[in-house]
Every structure is written in structure tokens, then in C-alpha cells.
């Protein structure tokens, strides 16, 4: 029996040395993982759902993170693209930049000037109930 290969190709911006590794990983996934998730898909548990979503995301060129969950009595989960927000979350209320005194010592709560962010306001999301 002949099984047609699904059309898949890496993003043209993918570095050439990663292409064979990515291709091997994507082609090892079940074919159903390469199709976008659909309403009504059933999963045994949250972990199976996340595997399916991460498989699709890998083939599509992004990653998935869990952004919320329900209560124990009503388990619901939200998964979004890793680039889901427009701004970084600042739960610690840190300053935007590190400030130093005249001796060169840090005087702010923020200790590192890590300004690289992944936020691109991507709206891709999936709910599991």
C-alpha cells in the first residue's frame, strides 16, 4: 500500500545546518500531527493534547506554551503560541532598565539588562476542556 507523503518543507529562513535535523523530527511525527488542530479532537489527557499541539507547531515553525488551567473540579487548559503577548509580563514589578549608582553598583531591583523578548502578539491558541 502506498502512503502519500504530506507536503512539508522548512521555513526558508531556517538555517541550512538545522534543516536535516528538523526534517528528520517532523517526518517522524504521525501524519495527523502535521494537520492544524480541529474543533472536536479528543485526547486521553492533557499531555497527549500537548504532544499533538507541539508536533503541529514544530511542523509549522513555532512552539506552544500552556497559559492557563482550570480548577481541579473543572480542568480546562489554554495553549498559545510562545509569541502570544505584545508585551512581557512583569509580575515582580521590576524597573524597565537596570540603574547604577556612581560606584557602578546596581541600585534597582532589576539585576540584569535582559531585554530580548519573544512577544509578537501572535493570536494562535487552543482550548482543551
What does this protein look like?
It is a single chain. With 129 residues, this protein is an alpha+beta fold. The chain has a domain at 19-86 and 120-128. Helix content is 19%, strand content 12%. The protein contains two helices and three strands, in the order ααβββ. The protein has helices at 19-27, 46-60; strands at residues 64-69, 77-81, 125-128. A three-stranded antiparallel β-sheet has the order 1-2-3, covered by helices on one side. A hairpin with a 7-residue loop joins strand 1 (64-69) and strand 2. The protein is flat, with a radius of gyration of 20 Å. The two termini are 37 Å apart. The mean pLDDT is 78.
Provide tags for this entry:
129 residues
The largest sheet, given as strand count, sense and whether it forms a barrel, is: 3 strands, antiparallel
Spatial gap, N to C terminus = 37 Å
Order of helices and strands: HHEEE
Question: Number of DSSP helices?
Answer: 2
Estimated helix fraction: 10-25%
Mean pLDDT over the residues: 78
Give me the secondary-structure category: alpha+beta
Residue share in β-strands = 5-15%
Q: What sort of overall outline do the alpha carbons produce when their principal axes are compared?
A: flat
Low-confidence stretches: none
Strand order of the largest sheet: 1-2-3
Number of strands: 3
